[in-house]
Fold this sequence. Notes:
The chain has five helices and 14 strands. It is of the alpha+beta class. It has one domain: Beta Complex (Endonuclease - Pi-scei, Chain A, domain 1). The longest helix is centred in the C-terminal third of the chain and has 29 residues, at 221-249.
Amino acid sequence: MNTPALLKxxxxxxxxxxxxxxxxxxxxxxxxxxxxxxDGADNAHLRFNKVxxxxxxxxxxxxxxxxxxxxxxxxxxxxxxxxxxxxxxxxSGSACASEELHGICHxxxxxxxxxDLYYELTGNGSxxxxxxxxxxxxxxxxxxxxxxxxxxxxxxxDGIWVDDWVEEEYRITSLKEEKGSFEVYAIEGLKxxxxxxxxxxxxGTETVVNGGFPTSITGSGDEIRAHWExxxxxxxxxxxxxxIKAFKMQNGVWPADKGDILEWxxxxxxxxx
Length: 273
């Protein structure tokens, strides 16, 4: 199996802040990255971790015949192989879509368009049709982490949410499969990093693939995708109901610097009724 790859022409944010087409990047160059393997890193909020100076160790070129293009509501597009992992800001249906519920929403972590292909790639299953239950499918309405060219203040990196930083919010409006002959590039080695900014969207690299996901379910590709979409909806609905109840218990006010509202109630031994 090949490493997930990006279409030729995709721009990558370099360490000095400039943008460079992926096909023009060479080994030994440095990019802006985040890494969930450092002390204190938060996998679900990678955007607010410390920015890493990551070195490109290996980048490869190949031809693919089947890709997927996601389009955002700001008209940005990104074309990748079907198994490309992305670190998402919010999944569709998140309470964060509602301004009055700001501060009680959750972040979704890693998603991929075809979890079945991604799981097969990690090599954790024996049959080739087993899938990670930790890697839901990308969908319309999902919200990406967006690169504005400016990183959050350092005090956010210290785990404190503040009012002087507003994260830009852009959502996926369509996912379209593309067939033909496409030149793609895969970052197969990245030192001191886990992610890159690709067309201003936060995506993973080969490091994510090597991490693997241990749990699995089985079935055909269509069955698994339908199953995951159903599970995703059920989990989000239950989670949002609980968050809204907690929000109402706080009289509709939840300062962002208090962190996740469910975690706060659990930590303080307060039942949500």
